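User: Please fill in residues for this 92-position structure.
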């Protein structure tokens, strides 16, 4: 998972051009944490997305606290972000 470099401002949207979710108005990517069906629908879309890793990296690097990013819920990303930050600190 490519999460070792911060996104530069002009690069923020380049990965989004290839995202599957961009045209999916029928799926809620910011569901309520208890809406298991909506979360499953969003994850299904993410599962076939070619920029899923970039999406997740963006969410971790910019600390997105809501929504499904890269197929992960906010709680799951919070755990990943803690590990990612710990690893960054250890590497410096």
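Assistant: Residues filled in for all 92 positions:
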């Amino acid at each position: 998972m490519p999460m070792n470099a911060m996104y530069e401002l002009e690069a923020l949207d380049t990965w989004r051009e290839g995202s599957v979710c961009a045209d999916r108005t029928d799926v809620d990517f910011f569901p309520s944490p208890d809406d298991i069906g909506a979360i499953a629908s969003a994850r299904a879309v993410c599962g076939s997305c070619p920029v899923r890793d970039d999406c997740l990296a963006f969410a971790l690097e910019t600390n997105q606290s809501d929504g499904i990013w890269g197929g992960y819920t906010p709680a799951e990303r919070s755990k990943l972000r803690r590990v990612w930050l710990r690893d960054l600190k250890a590497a410096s």
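For context: Helices lie at 36-47, 52-61, 74-91.
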